[in-house]
Specification:
The chain is mainly alpha-helical. It has one domain (7-40, 74-165). The chain has helices at 20-28, 61-64, 80-94, 101-106, 116-135, 140-165; strands at residues 12-13, 32-33. A two-stranded parallel sheet has the order 1-2.
Length: 168
């Protein structure tokens, strides 16, 4: 089984630009523009990695209706306090990572597939990351914070899973 790797998410843009100038600035910054049909953060019906129909991913109402937030302070510069708060709230929503400890007692990481509950956790977390980044207007600092949080969640997930499987 292939391990989950979110390291490439920090340079993907699929929303958050209003015109060609904003899109071009993202491209110049090294981002990859993903078309809406290839967007992994959209609803499960359009995502190629969607779970089976028996287990739909349903986002909470507050995530479905999330609006772009003004991320500038009174001087017109970045409002870092708000950016850190958005990242903190995202981390709080998904920490600790979902690990089915009983499953890993008899199964081996890297050899066996992850349980459905864990797969759902990562799908919901990735969708929320996309929604959060979009609400932040694709701000590069916020994207970097969210990517760092995803890496931290993955490290913690692996540590919990390895401890449950007796490999820690």
């Amino acid at each position: 089984m292939q391990e989950l790797d979110f390291s490439g998410l920090n340079k993907i843009a699929y929303k958050g630009f209003e015109n060609a100038e904003e899109r071009d600035s993202l491209l110049e910054a090294g981002f990859t523009i993903v078309s809406p049909q290839d967007n992994p953060f959209e609803a499960p019906q359009s995502a190629p990695v969607a779970p089976p129909p028996s287990a739909p991913v349903i986002l909470p109402e507050n995530l479905r209706e999330r609006k772009r937030e003004a991320l500038t302070d009174h001087t017109g510069g970045r409002d870092y306090k708000k950016l850190y708060r958005i990242a903190h709230d995202f981390h709080q929503r998904h920490n600790p990572p979902e690990v089915v400890r009983d499953y890993w007692k008899d199964h081996r990481p890297g050899e066996d597939d992850i349980p459905e509950a864990e797969a759902q956790y990562w799908i919901k977390t990735a969708q929320d990351m996309g929604e959060t980044a979009s609400a932040g207007g694709g701000d590069s600092f916020l994207m970097a914070l969210l990517s760092a949080i995803m890496e931290e969640l993955e490290r913690e997930y692996k540590a919990i899973r390895d401890k449950a499987s007796g490999r820690a």
